[in-house]
Amino acid sequence: LKNTEFALVFMDIQMPKMDGFDVLLELRKLPLHKTTPVVFVTANDRDPKREVEAYKLGAADIIYKPIEPEIIEAKCKVFVDLYR
Fold first, then answer.
1. How far apart are CA 84 and CA 74, in angstroms?
2. Residue 46: which pLDDT band, with cuts at 50, 70 and 90?
3. Which of 59-67's residues contact partners 24+ apart within 8 Å by CB, and which partners?
4. What is the pLDDT of residues 17-32, one digit of tens each?
5. CA distance 51 to 80
6. I need a surface site. Which of 17, 20, 77, 80 has the fewest CB within 10 A?
7. Whole-model pTM?
8. Quick one: three-class SS letters along the chain?
């Protein structure tokens, strides 16, 4: 991640060792990723407090599983177009 730029990052919130929120905080410390859009993916039930926390940390969006491929495709297109 330190040397590679991305138009968009999809990341699960629940991961071993570090959760997605912790990874996002670390990502923001890297010069290339201070503004990289991060879309969280989660199987958790909707929790407004967690959603607010995600957005305050700088998440661009949150997608709940099961994932609709058309939604992922549309979001990717928007962020890649903005990146270009």
1. 16
2. confident
3. 59/24, 60/8, 61/37, 62/13, 63/10, 63/39, 65/41, 67/41
4. 999 999 999 999 999 9
5. 23
6. 17
7. 0.89
8. CCCCCCCCEEEECCCCCCCHHHHHHHHHCCHHHCCCCEEEEECCCCCHHHHHHHHHHCCCEEEECCCCHHHHHHHHHHHHHHHC
